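A protein record in our archive is deliberately plain, so that people and models can read it alike. The record that follows is passed on verbatim for readers who wish to inspect the format.
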Amino acid sequence: MARGPKKHLKRLNAPKSWMLDKIGGVFAPRPSTGPHKLRESLPLVLILRNRLKYALTNTEVTKIVMQRLIKIDGKVRTDNTFPAGFMDVITIEKTGEFFRILYDVKGRFILHRITAEEAKYKLCRVKRVQVGPKGIPFLVTHDARTIR
């Protein structure tokens, strides 16, 4: 009987939006728990290795990430399986590049290069609005942010 969360993800069960080939091995990197769901996110290792071609292996991605060069939504991320999702801004300090994660018309993730001015804001979908204690309203966005 399984105890705890699942730790593995087979390539064939990975979301089609990741665009992984069938013969690239048995396993795919499983995203960590985070602001986006598994099916609505892309692990950081796939962004750096498969999309941007900054690394050839998972070990190289770990070395890049541990140098604290990669920011997602303005925060340094050192987890190479951190889930980056829709409308997230990825900043690479050393090269001065900014990317926004979007979907193409077929529902696959694409990295859209943006300017430094565009990278300062992020559009969020409001999931729910509630009234908190003392009658103060707050809203929850699609990436689990709470705004009062």
Remarks:
- The mean pLDDT is 94.
- The longest helix spans residues 58-66.
- The two ends are 42 Å apart (CA to CA).
